[in-house]
Amino acid sequence: MNLRIPFVCAALGLVGPLYGGPITSGVYWEFSFTDAGIQARGCDPDPLGGFCVASSGTPTSFLDAPPWTFAAPASGSVLTVTDAFESGDRFQIFDFGLSLGLTSAPGAMTVDCGDDPVVCLATTGVSHGMFGLAPGNHSISITPTLSAGGGSGYFAVDAATAIPEPGTWLLLAIGGATLLALRSRMRMGLLVLLSFAVLAKPDTPTRFAGPTSSQPLALTADDAFLAVANPDNNSVTFFDLRADRNRKLAEVPVETEPNGVAVLPDGSKAYVANTVSGTVSVIKLNIRNGLIGRALLHIPVGTEPYGLALTPNGKKLYVTNARSNSVSVIDTATDAVVKTIPNAGFEPRGIAITNDGDGDDNNETVYVTQFLSLPIAGTVDGQDNAKAGRVTILSTATDTVTDQVTLNPIADTGFKAFGDAIARIPPGMTATFTTGAYPNQLNNVAIKNGFAYVPNTGASPNGPVRFDVNTHSLLAVINRASGMDAGKTINMHTAVRDQTATPKLFITQPWAMAFKHGSNEGYVVSAASNIVVKVSVDAASGVPAVENDPVSMGRVLQLKVGKNPRGIVVNSTDTRAYVMNYVSRDVSVMSLEGPEQVTGSVQSASLPAAGTLSDTIQIGKELYNTSVGEFDPATLGGVPITGRMSAAGWGACSACHPFGLSDNVVWIFPSGPKRTIPQHTDFDQTDPQRKIMRALNWSAERDEEEDFELNIRAVSGGQGLIVLADGTTQDPGVANFVPPSAGRNQLKVRGVNAWDAIKAYVQFGIRAPISPVSKTDPDVVAGRALFASANCQQCHGGAQWTSSRIRFTPPPAAGVVDVNGQIIGELRKVGTFDPAALNEVRATGAPSLGADGFAPASLLSVFAFPQTFLHNGAVDSLDAVLNNVTHRSAGTAGVDTLTSAADRAKVVKFIQSIDAATVPFP
Fold first, then answer.
1. Mean pLDDT, the chain, as a whole number?
2. Whose CA is closest to 48, among 178, 201, 156, 180?
3. Model confidence at 17: pLDDT above 50
């Protein structure tokens, strides 16, 4: 039985006092080194967990900083030193600074002896040595004289009469923020065999096999190791994939909210995009030789870096800066930003880079997705063709923007509506109205043949709302030769619709995809439905198609993975795929040999402890991001309850609120046209208890988060979470305001009330976007003063940047809510309602609410939602918002203090700077 823990490794550039703890005899101690000539180091135990950090020199029961001290008995001692993992390293041994000699010269051929010191000692070609030590005190240090990028080895001290024996690993708890782990081998008289044979070193690839793309996980080019970003743990985990071991090696701390990761083709460095910190961390690697460094270099880039992709030979790294609308280019030889490409589009996120097969990285094309769609001139928000997706094209030769592709709406989604709100046709008895949709939420792009493919959530906002005509699972196609939309977009939902087998599970929120290298097949990740689906593409035309299950041809091939999958990579031999599951914090392993199947999963990072607030928030995040939902049985020992979040998996909170924010779509709802409100503004984030809440929806129609039970039922078609006493039957008595929705009997997840968890996620788990505009910019400072003099804070003051509040404990008293179901006291008339506008209509075709005003919108991070302003998206810029005299003078009783266009421009710049770091008005 193999009792080892994963091998882990040394830090880079270790510092600290040079004195060490005593060395126990009969134990193999692991040491690590970063390069020839740099003294090897040990480590201290991490106070936050069982991993180790760079040694401070404080004596412990672990291996500390050198020198390592001990007293030899009267018979003397034997010091045994051996290289580990890949051969090629050699060491000079010192005692009180005097050289004892060198270990043996490594062999001509590099071999891998693994991480068992006894096997390494017995392997020909691996450097090792035994040194006799006289009785008395000794002070040992070790310096590598040969090393190709660092590694690790072992030493042991035994009485001169003893023979070093192999032993089992001293098991250490795994956890905490770490950079390396220490192990010692104890003499137990038991040989633990290696789980792999001694092998000749394989050739290390120096370039990738095909096009590259940004993902939250990355393979080394030789498919041997995997790096996975852990956004909620501020770490990156490395796995050994050789021989399907899939074992966790180390979890390395980086900076805040890592979302993208890339590894150089030769495996010598990993790069991590830290979204909140605005940096890219650099981690030195020599994993085959036992070295995973800590991230000691963090390269400043733009605001909210998200996606990373390397050129085919790894010479350049491209970074999408989602909030500063730019792309940073990093030279991987110097790890410095060599260029920042401005105007890369609104909210750049996904990246894909071509690979023409040569050694030149300056002749490739870079595709960058813009996450949210933008308006089409001549259309009105709320129409199914109101917006289009955008993909920016860059040249690696010049590192400039060379073009932009427009991804057009599709005229027919394949699903019919019961009416047409924009045309003022109320719902009928049959679904006969053709619905269109436009691409939105462009998170990822993948290249195959002469085409680029963009999975996205299509928006079909015209009313009436119904689960199967709201959002769609689109796969758009770009013709790379023409640089245009290929006109081959498909709605993947139609493949599920056409299944003959039941039950059906729709492909909600397609988030990422990856192709095989040797065939025209790929895989799309459905983030909300927790599945991966297979697609094939026509090499000549680019037309994609969803594949059926070869074992059950009556249904789409759907591979169930972990919770909220957000990334996928396929190895170079097309035998395995790996899926990063954000909410369950694990990696699903897929076999692609024969019929595809999920063969297992490995945990990437720890989940919150049960019973904590963090655990409740995590459960809420799980439910918010799923179209299905998995709940506790209604009775002890019963069958778990599933599928309550939407009809057949079609719909999720996150489908309209990606990242808990806004899809920027104006939906024709039962009350009228309403742009999706980002939920980071629901609660006052400066209130530790998160008790201060705004009135919900533009028309102040709700006073509790739990009222959105009605959205689960009406918009997503689900059975919902509020139930009768039997624990399963939908409670019909749910309405806005009366009776209160909070505290009702509801489904549970791991013993936690489902709605309590969702509310906790909205309260504590949604981060406000970070503005790229400096708070000290002179125009921002001037704009703040002008904002105040115009008394804009009358409607847009307070920590939530809105005057809207719930000022009562539900239910509201008589008179608080008017006959139209609005908290009338929270509405403000500011000249933004035009009853004659084409989209001012209810889902039924009747006139919309709005004559009484609207709950003031929050300005917190409003910059992040481009070209769609006011409740109905009537204007496409903040300049246009301030051109409305009634609006801009609402705080000064109609006296216009902003007649100057230059002054208004300064106010706009101030508004664009507002984020959670901005000091609010009282």
1. 90
2. 178
3. no
Of residues 386 and 5, the one with the higher pLDDT is 386
Query: Is 80 exceeded by the pLDDT of residue 141?
Result: yes
- φ/ψ region of 798 (left if φ > 0, alpha if ψ in -120 to 50, else beta) reads left
Residue pair 274/255 in contact by the 8 Å Cβ criterion: yes
Report in angstroms the alpha-carbon separations of 633 from 630, 642, 727. Answer: 9, 9, 8
CB atoms within 10 A of CB 686: 12
Alpha-carbon distance 826 to 795, whole Å? 10
Contact 703, 806 (CB under 8 A): yes
Picking from 163-177, 707-721, 893-907, which range would have the lowest pLDDT averaged per residue? 163-177
**Residue burial 252-287, b: 16+ Cβ < 10 Å; e: rest:** bbbbebbbbbbbbbbbbbbbbbbbbbbbbbbbbbbb
CA atoms within 13 A on the CB side of 141: 17
Nearest to 350 by CA among 407, 297, 283: 407
User: In the predicted model, is pLDDT for residue 50 greater than 60?
Assistant: no
pLDDT category at 45 given cuts 50, 70, 90 is very low
| 162: pLDDT strictly greater than 50 | no
Reduced to 3 DSSP states, what percent helix, strand and coil does the chain have, rounded to the nearest 5? 10, 35, 55
Burial class (CB in 10 A: 0-12, 13-18, 19+), 601: middle
To the nearest 10 degrees (0 to 180), the angle between helices 613-624 and 754-764 is: 100
CA terminus-to-terminus distance, the chain: 66
What b/e string do you get for 391-414 counting C-beta neighbours within 10 Å, with b at 16 or more? bbbbbbeebebeeebebbbbeebb
